[in-house]
Amino acid sequence: MLNKERWENLELLKNRNELSVEGKNGIGFLLSGAVIWTIITIIFLQAIDISQKNIFMLFSTGLMFPLSVGISTLIKADWKFKDNPLGNLGLYLNLSQFIYFTIFFWGIIKSPEAAVMFFAIITGAHLFPYGWLYNAKPYYVMAPVISVAIMALGLYLDGENLWLIPLAVVILLILLIIWVYANYKSKI
């Protein structure tokens, strides 16, 4: 017979797997992230001042939530999780990214050319806890891969080729989406 702690662990795993399947592993949010980073790539391809690029990049993030809701609705992914006790955790994990924005704002003020790299690293790193939430290993692998790859790329780029950073984020997010989708399909 299973003890109480083991039953609770089984219930937690069941809740995480339900969250994973109902929310389709967060694919709606990842897809909208790929769209946002595509917009950021286009912004950084423009022949405008770096401070304007950074402002437009910051404004483009305002599309994230409505786009995520729209894409989630389109792919029939439930991101609200009213009946699942872990549902609010996803919201808190996403809101925690705002704490990291202090680094991004520092970059915009003190090192404008590095701001896109800071933002890309923050984006990659904030994905890590979703591995636990959705019980999906692709998040555990790709979060550090995105962060380290962007840092390495950022170390070797000059101000003229900064567009390669958001493009790399788009490519890495697409790889994550494919892997997370395969993980989701294995659970249903």
TrEMBL record:
InterPro entries named among the record's database cross-references: DUF7010
UniProt keywords, alphabetically: Membrane, Transmembrane, Transmembrane helix
Transmembrane feature ranges: 26-48, 54-77, 89-109, 115-132, 139-157, 163-182
Source superkingdom: Bacteria
Record's protein name: Uncharacterized protein
Source organism: Oceanobacillus zhaokaii
Lineage: Bacteria, Bacillati, Bacillota, Bacilli, Bacillales
